[in-house]
């Protein structure tokens, strides 16, 4: 029980640090690489939420693939649209 709470607190703190990192990166406006750094950070955060807070780490493979796949498809589409846009 204590280890579960410790793991959740560690995960929450990791999410908080990643969010703060993205907040600090907002100052680099116009940097093309920044979009992809933020997408990677969002992917890490999304996977942490799926695994820890939604408790799908030990769920059937189909559920994990469905949610993780949705996350990476959405982020992939955003990345492709950003990479192919003119601005």
UniProtKB/TrEMBL annotation:
Q: In what way does this protein cross or attach to the membrane? A: Multi-pass membrane protein
- TM ranges are 7-25, 31-50, 62-81
Highest taxon listed in the record's lineage? Bacteria
- InterPro entries in the cross-refs: Cyt_c_oxidase_su4_prok
**Which subcellular locations apply to this protein?**
Cell membrane
Keyword Lipid metabolism among record annotations = no
Q: Which UniProt keywords apply?
A: Cell membrane, Membrane, Transmembrane, Transmembrane helix
What Gene Ontology terms describe where this protein resides (cellular component)? Answer: plasma membrane
What's this protein's name? Cytochrome c oxidase subunit IV
């Amino acid at each position: 029980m204590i280890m579960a709470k410790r793991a959740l607190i560690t995960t929450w703190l990791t999410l908080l640090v990643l969010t703060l990192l993205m907040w600090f990166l907002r100052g680099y406006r116009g940097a093309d690489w920044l979009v992809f750094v933020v997408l990677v950070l969002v992917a890490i955060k999304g996977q942490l939420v799926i695994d820890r807070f939604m408790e799908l780490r030990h769920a059937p493979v189909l559920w994990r693939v469905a949610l993780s796949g949705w996350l990476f498809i959405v982020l992939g589409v955003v990345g492709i649209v950003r990479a192919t846009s003119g601005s």
